[in-house]
Amino acid sequence: DVQLVESGGGSVQAGGSLTLSCLASGYTVTAYCMGWFRQAPGKEREGVATIVGTKITSYADSVKGRFNISKDDAKNTLYLVMNSLKPEDTAMYYCGADLLCSDYTFAYWGQGTQVTVSS
Known about the structure:
This protein has strands at about 5, 10-15, 20-25, 35-40, 45-50, 55-60, 65-70, 75-80, 90-100, 110, 115-119. It is globular, with a radius of gyration of 13 Å. It is mainly beta.
């Protein structure tokens, strides 16, 4: 079974940084499109970033220039480095995986990790 476990969330002040990790098991990360999406209370789910292989990346306009997605194939782990965090980045962050990247929808996702940014 494919399993994804996120970690690294927390509470930070605006302008701070956090790094999220997503440990994958049951498959090899190199074979899948992986990404991050987030959901805040009362708001729709929002795609954040995706990565195919190790170099083909895509970002939502709201995080371009501030967030960086990467993978460590040897560790089967996906990362999201978040800099210059804003209060509007506050949400539950989920990592996802699928055979193809498709509008930030994924066949598999984890339980999420909470990110809270205070002003």
